[in-house]
Amino acid sequence: MSKKKIAVFISGRGSNFKAILNEINKGTINGSIELVISDNPDAKGLLYARDNDIECAVFKKSKDCSRSDYFDKIISTLRARDIDLILLAGFMKVLSGNIVRAYRNRVLNIHPALLPSFPGEQAQKQALEYGVKFSGCTVHIVDESVDTGPIVLQEAVPVLDDDTEEILSDRILEREHIIYSRAVKLLCDDKLSITGRRVFIK
Ligand code: GAR
């Protein structure tokens, strides 16, 4: 099976990107990161990508550019490089319908909560404020809405009485790195089958 060509989308630190790249470099994932895309020129993860000789492309969205036009430019860049899979790793823009359709079932996202609880921004803060005793992380396939696509993998972590948002986020992040890499490996090995909302591991 040929290696899948991957584009990772980031907006900030890029620790999930690093964790996945690390697994690729160890030979565990049958894929290669061809491109890192960011909406933020100052994203720290871009420095790491450049240090690892991975091509980076920054797409800043201007106010007069529609979301659909913005993502059309990104689609052209992806197609020019024959990208097979997109990984959202802390990418803080909602994908438009055109890119979801162009890469149907080939876009993954990591979210720092047990979906469908606490979608959207500040998921860890939402979990603390709600008072749940467990939260965690979810890898899901991206569909046209926000954090609603079929769930690939989830892992729970406890929420402890003296947790701050930062402490809980760190506990979740450690598990994110593990389940995201695992899900990417499954996708690259063509081991995921999707029936309706349910994702099965073949
Ligand atoms: C991660 O916690 C990820 O789950 C979250 O942003 C962080 C990015 O960290 N994503 C979302 O909240 C998406 N809704 P990273 O840049 O170090 O990978």
Number of helices: 6
The CATH topology of the largest domain, please? Rossmann fold
What proportion of the residues is helical, as a percent range? 25-40%
CATH level-four homologous superfamily name of the largest domain: Formyl transferase, N-terminal domain
Total E-strand runs: 9
Strand content bin? 25-35%
One letter per element, helices H and strands E, the order comes to EHEHEHEHEHEEHEE
Global geometry: globular
Question: How does CATH name the architecture of the largest domain?
Answer: 3-Layer(aba) Sandwich
Average pLDDT works out at 98
Q: Can you list the ligands bound to this structure?
A: glycinamide ribonucleotide
The description of the largest β-sheet is: 7 strands, mixed
What is the topology, as strand order, of the major beta sheet? 3-2-1-4-5-6-7
Task: List strands and helices in order, with pairings.
Blueprint: E1 4-10, H1 15-26, E2 31-38, H2 44-51, E3 55-58, H3 67-80, E4 85-88, H4 97-102, E5 107-111, H5 123-130, E6 134-141, E7 151-158, H6 165-188, E8 192-195, E9 198-201
Parallel strand pairs: 1-2, 1-4, 2-3, 4-5
Antiparallel strand pairs: 5-6, 6-7, 8-9
Helix pairs in contact: 1-6
The structure holds glycinamide ribonucleotide.
